[in-house]
Design a protein that fits this description.
Elements (H helix, E strand, L loop, with lengths): L5 H51 L7 H14 L2 E5 L5 E4 L5 H4 L5 H7 L4 E7 L4 E12 L2 E11 L1 H51 L13 H37 L3 E6 L4 E4 L1 H7 L3 H4 L4 H4 L3 H12 L4 E7 L5 E11 L5 E10 L1 H36 L6 H37 L5 E4 L1 H10 L1 H6 L3 E5 L5 E4 L1 H17 L6 E9 L2 E7 L22 H6 L6 H11 L3 E7 L3 E9 L2
Parallel strand pairs: 12-14
Antiparallel strand pairs: 1-2, 1-5, 3-4, 4-5, 6-7, 6-10, 8-9, 9-10, 11-13, 14-15, 15-17, 16-17
């Protein structure tokens, strides 16, 4: 049902009150005037009746003189005069229809007067079509009833006056109603207009116009209401400002976090997530919002973890494996969300990508295992042959010389491993401190020096080496370190190439960087090993690597030297065809 405005509640009330007041006053006034007029008319008629009855003592009642007196009186005053005997016979009537008086049942006042005492009655006379006032006064002689003197006067003047009064009252009532409605309209507007302003300001606040305020009107109550509204608007604006500030700070914190953060409700519908989480899960937040997480992320481990976080009162933690183009390990932490009454309403999940950390842990474990094994092998060999010599083999010159040569070879191997470890540690420390001196200089000279240092390895296996590098090609380098890196790559190329093959060393400039390439035609590397060949002590073929005298640290040293030059090293290889190691350096 539609609501009516306050104005239309007030106007009818004011109008009805004014109309009722005017009608009540008019009714009382009309009643008072009518009663006063009738009282005066009764008194006058009774006085006239007393006068005429007094004349009956002087004039014979049935004489012509009394009739003439009554006719004169009737013409003068307009009052009907009649004399009715006890037997209801009318002996005189100045009216036009004397026979009607004989029917005394229509005139109860005559009957009552015959029983004693004057009586009057207001009645409507059809013949005259107006009201009349009848007065019947008994006439007696010596205590004996002689008849009833009947006087009747029309009330046309009274009725006309009353009619005028009614019309006047109606006009005054209409005027008062109009005036009261006008006053009510002005008064109601004085109330409604400030309320409308408050309503409009409230709508503006609801629409986000936090600066909306209302003027303070004159009436105290409305002024207090407007001041209360403005105070409330100030508080709301301040609270909104604080909420927006807190939300912006929270969003900024979440957006700057490397960890993915997502929140779900009790039905596992997504409430919110930060950019890191959308990137980790590969989701569009606008499309995933409000949907069940199982619909947008097909991962059983994550679904089980979220279910645990929702039902477990304490925080939970677990690793979650995400499948995709590349498998990633997520360290997930979850805790339940509670409302102000302590009821669980959802859960918040924090995802931290620990793939690299887990890989580094694996590399560290492998490194510890590998370095222990690499050091243990020569130490065990040296210890065994020394014990053999001490047990009596020294007495045989041939055996003792052979054993000592083996001990010397293993000692050299142990020394090479330690030297490579120290070199690698020094390079890493310099790389972290960024204190390796780099200067623009030609690359060809460094390549020629590295080739010269490894020439003996190529000559032993009759390997042809070609060098292709522009003499004007320059880069920001440390020549000694870069020479060591290229020498390690060349040494590997010679070791893993068959005799009589070709090794190519060439450098070029492309896409804003300088590339140095070492290509061999050796045995090649299987694809599953390519991502790990630069790890310390990682060997594709352990037996062959040790036989060739490698320490397992050469490529790791190459990687860290290149990183110290703010570059990178890559490898491409085909099993049974050969390999190409490429050093990418920034141009000078």
């Amino acid at each position: 049902m539609p609501k009516r405005r306050l104005l239309w509640h007030l106007l009818p009330s004011y109008g009805l009150i004014a109309l009722a007041a005017v009608l009540a006053i008019g009714w009382v006034a009309i009643d008072y005037v009518e009663d006063s007029y009738l009282a005066a008319a009764r008194s006058n008629l009774r006085a006239q009746a007393a006068f005429l009855i007094g004349q009956l003592d002087e004039i014979p009642a049935h004489g012509a003189d009394f009739a003439a007196l009554c006719r004169l009186y009737s013409r003068t005053t307009g009052t009907r005069v009649a004399l009715v005997l006890p037997d209801a016979k009318v002996v005189f009537d100045s009216g036009e229809r004397p026979q009607e008086l004989e029917n005394q049942r229509s005139h109860p006042e005559i009957q009552q007067a015959q029983r004693g005492g004057a009586h009057d009655l207001v009645r409507y006379q059809p013949g005259l079509e107006q009201r009349v006032l009848d007065v019947a006064v008994p006439v007696s002689r010596a205590g004996e009833s002689r008849g009833v003197l009947y006087l009747s006067t029309p009330l046309a003047a009274l009725d006309q006056s009353l009619s005028h009064m009614r019309a006047t009252i109606l006009l005054v009532g209409a005027a008062m109603v109009a005036l009261s409605v006008l006053v009510a309209w002005r008064s109601a507007n004085g109330i409604v207009r400030p309320l409308d302003r408050i309503r409009e300001a409230a709508g503006q606040l609801a629409g986000g116009l936090w600066g909306a305020r209302v003027p303070v009107p004159d009436p105290q109550e409305l002024a207090e209401l407007a001041e209360a509204f403005n105070h409330m608007a100030d508080l709301v604006q301040e609270q909104i400002r604080i909420l927006i500030q807190n939300n912006n700070e929270q969003q900024a914190v979440l957006a700057s976090m490397a960890e993915g953060v997502l929140a779900v409700d009790g039905q596992e519908r997504l409430i919110s997530m930060n950019k890191a989480c959308s990137r980790l899960l590969g989701l569009d937040p606008s499309q995933a919002q409000g949907r069940r997480l199982q619909e947008v992320v097909r991962n059983a481990d994550l679904s089980r973890f979220i279910t645990r976080a929702l039902v477990c009162p304490d925080p939970v933690e677990s690793d979650v494996l995400l499948h995709g183009d590349q498998e990633r390990v997520m360290q997930a932490r979850g805790s339940a969300l509670h409302d102000l009454e302590g009821r669980a309403i959802g859960a918040v999940i924090v995802l931290n990508d620990v793939t690299d950390f887990r890989r580094l842990e694996s590399i560290r474990r492998d490194f510890v295992s590998n370095v222990s094994h690499e050091l243990k092998t020569p130490v065990t060999s040296i210890k065994g042959f020394v014990e053999t010599l001490l047990d009596g083999a020294m007495q045989d010159p041939v055996d003792s010389e052979r054993f000592l040569r083996i001990v010397s070879k293993q000692a050299d191997r142990l020394h090479a491993i330690i030297e490579d470890l120290l070199s690698l540690s020094k390079i890493e420390q310099s790389e972290d401190a960024d204190d390796i001196a780099l200067e623009p200089m030609g690359v060809r000279g460094v390549l020629e020096a590295a080739l010269a240092a490894c020439r003996s390895g190529a000559d032993e296996k009759n390997i042809e080496v070609t060098l292709d590098c522009d003499s004007h090609l320059t880069a920001r380098i440390n020549p000694l370190l870069l020479e060591q890196a290229i020498a390690n790559l060349l040494d590997n190329a010679f070791k893993y190439s068959e005799p009589g093959r070709q090794v190519r060393l060439w450098a070029a400039s492309a896409d804003g960087e300088v590339t140095i390439n070492v290509t061999d035609r050796g045995c090649g590397i299987a694809g599953e090993h390519l991502s790990r060949v630069f790890e310390r002590f990682y060997r594709v073929d352990r037996a062959r690597s040790r036989k060739l005298g490698g320490t397992g640290l050469g490529l790791a040293i190459v990687k860290h030297i290149v990183q110290a030059h703010h570059g990178r090293v890559t490898v491409e290889s085909t099993l049974g065809v050969g390999s190409t190691f490429t050093v990418h350096l920034p141009r000078a």
